[in-house]
């Protein structure tokens, strides 16, 4: 018998669930491998991985300027032959200047950096934040991380002291949060977003969840906000953010603002928690000084889409020095974030400026990616309107739609026979029939008695949308 088995490994890992890479994703990869080997028995010719926000897997092209700079960082000998790259590969002179500057600050992308990140890159993030919000940012409060997920992991380790430590988590939510809390053996305190109000925050629901948890003896320490939302796509208005900050002040909660989709906003504009907090502090001096806020951003989403390079940052506001020391210690245990990812963070927050040689192509690519995402979101939303029993709010932001689906009783019975929830059953049949992989709403949390699924709108073309519409029609006909 092996030393390790399902009965003696860490039970908190077994308890954790992460639906976006769960059973459906595994099966989709099996189909992808079969198709690559020439299997013609499947009823589709391509797998569409609409289950995860992975832009470049779904043919979003990397920003040329970013990749050109990275190529020089990985192979500095290219600096010896700039004319060859300019004449034959479309490089611009500012690519080499930026690469030289980045290398002068980190020495080599193959070397460790300071634990919290290369200081000069943190200066660039601070300048970006000041420009974005209109308020100063201090580089010492900024930590470069291996994507936003790494930052979340760091902060949750600091916040979750005992199994009784509770965090308010939005439902539906990105399952990173509930899975991480399960691993840490801490307490998830769910609060439901209001689908009838475009998945906005519901202060009454928030307060009721908090107060019930406290009455049950939970030490509620933090509230998590995902803005723009995942999986909902909701983009919060400034008044909603103000309400959350007031609530956090009232209940003495840390605010964790996951803002990785801040450039993916189609309706209205993005309001950062840091910017709104600073406004509130200026309006009422002294009142909000005790607020502890951490906000996170990433190179994985938006128009950058460099998921595999693992880069991001988080900024601390209002944390006690002795807590900051423990955060620094924790990130030091992992030595540093990938330095190539740190370079990409610097490029993201400090892209080519108007008048520089690379600016025109950069802006053309950036705008093209944004308009393409918006067009595909609109096309998918229009398709949902034609599907019986499917309801979905207008696309607001992020990379996802989260429609409600109403399924016939026969589907629920067939799902129960397989030991699945109806939404899991629907998504599995969709994958088997079309090769389209989406995630059932149960993987994110949903109000009891409702069913949803989350899909990205990253995949190019519209043929796959037509396949989904036809599948839905056939599914209803079969199980009604």
Short description:
The chain is an alpha/beta fold and 480 residues long. It is 45% helix and 12% strand.
Question: Can you give a write-up of this model?
Answer:
Helix content is 45%, strand content 12%. The chain has 480 residues and is of the alpha/beta class. The strands form 4 sheets. Strands 2-8-7-6-5-3-4 form a 7-stranded mixed β-sheet, sandwiched between helices. Helix 3 (64-74) packs across helix 5, helix 6 runs parallel beside helix 13 (339-349) and helix 7 crosses helix 8 (176-183). The protein is globular. The N and C termini lie far apart (49 Å). The model has no long low-confidence stretch (mean pLDDT 91).
Descriptive terms for the model:
single chain, 480 residues, alpha/beta, 3-stranded antiparallel sheet, 17 helices, pyridoxal phosphate, PyrdxlP-dep_Trfase, Aminotransferase_I/II_large, transaminase activity
Mean pLDDT: 91
Number of strands: 14
Order the strands across the largest sheet as they lie in space: 2-8-7-6-5-3-4
| Percentage of residues in DSSP E strands | 5-15%
The main β sheet shows up as: 7 strands, mixed
Distance between the termini: 49 Å
Pfam families: Aminotran_1_2
GO molecular function, one term: pyridoxal phosphate binding
Protein name: Glutamate pyruvate transaminase
Subunit structure: Homodimer.
List the helices and strands and how they pair.
Layout: H1 11-15, H2 23-36, E1 48-49, H3 64-74, H4 82-89, H5 93-106, H6 119-133, E2 142-145, H7 147-159, E3 165-171, H8 176-183, E4 187-192, H9 203-215, E5 219-226, H10 238-251, E6 254-258, H11 273-283, E7 293-298, E8 312-317, H12 321-333, H13 339-349, H14 359-385, E9 390-391, E10 400-401, E11 404-405, H15 409-417, H16 422-434, E12 436-437, E13 439-440, E14 453-456, H17 463-479
Parallel strand pairs: 1-12, 3-4, 3-5, 5-6, 6-7
Antiparallel strand pairs: 2-8, 7-8, 9-11, 10-14, 13-14
């Amino acid at each position: 018998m092996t030393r390790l088995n399902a009965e003696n490994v860490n039970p908190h890992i077994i308890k954790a669930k992460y639906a976006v890479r769960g059973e459906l994703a595994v099966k989709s990869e099996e189909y992808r491998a079969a198709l690559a080997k020439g299997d013609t028995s499947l009823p589709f010719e391509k797998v569409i991985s609409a289950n995860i926000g992975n832009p470049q897997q779904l043919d979003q092209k990397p920003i040329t300027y970013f990749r050109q700079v990275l190529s020089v960082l990985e192979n500095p000998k290219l600096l010896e032959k700039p004319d060859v790259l300019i004449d034959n590969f479309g490089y611009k002179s500012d690519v080499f200047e930026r690469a030289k500057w980045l290398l002068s600050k980190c020495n080599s992308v193959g070397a460790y950096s300071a634990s919290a990140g290369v200081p000069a890159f943190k200066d660039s993030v601070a300048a970006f934040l000041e420009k974005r919000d209109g308020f100063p940012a201090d580089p010492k409060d900024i930590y470069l991380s291996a994507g936003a997920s790494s930052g979340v992991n760091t902060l949750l380790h600091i916040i979750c002291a005992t199994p009784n430590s509770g965090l308010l988590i939005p439902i539906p939510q990105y399952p990173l949060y509930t899975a991480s809390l399960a691993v840490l053996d801490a307490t998830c305190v769910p609060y439901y977003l209001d689908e009838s109000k475009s998945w906005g925050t519901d202060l009454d629901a928030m307060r009721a969840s908090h107060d019930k948890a406290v009455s049950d003896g939970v030490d509620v320490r933090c509230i998590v906000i995902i803005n723009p939302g995942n999986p909902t796509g909701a983009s919060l208005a400034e008044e909603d953010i103000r309400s959350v900050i007031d609530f956090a002040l009232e209940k003495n909660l840390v605010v964790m603002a996951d803002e990785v989709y801040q450039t993916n906003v189609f309706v209205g504009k993005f309001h950062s928690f840091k910017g709104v907090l600073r406004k509130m502090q200026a309006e009422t001096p002294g009142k909000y000084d005790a607020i502890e806020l951490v906000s996170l951003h990433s190179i994985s989403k938006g128009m950058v889409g460099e998921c595999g390079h693992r880069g991001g940052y988080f900024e601390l506001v209002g944390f006690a020095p002795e807590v900051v020391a423990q955060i620094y210690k924790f990130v030091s245990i992992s030595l540093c974030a990938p330095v190539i990812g740190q370079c990409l963070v610097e490029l993201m927050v400090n892209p080519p400026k108007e008048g520089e040689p690379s600016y025109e192509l950069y802006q053309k690519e950036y705008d093209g990616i944004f308009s393409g995402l918006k067009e595909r979101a609109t096309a998918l939303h229009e398709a949902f309107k034609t599907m019986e029993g499917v309801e979905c709010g207008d696309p607001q932001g992020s990379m996802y739609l989260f429609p409600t689906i109403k399924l016939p009783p026969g589907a629920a019975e067939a799902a129960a026979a397989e030991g699945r929830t109806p939404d899991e059953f629907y998504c599995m049949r969709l994958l088997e029939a079309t090769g389209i992989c989406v995630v059932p709403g149960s993987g994110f949390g949903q109000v009891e008695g409702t069913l949803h699924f989350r899909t990205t709108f990253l995949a190019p073309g519209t043929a796959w949308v037509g396949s989904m519409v036809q599948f839905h029609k056939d599914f209803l006909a079969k199980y009604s």
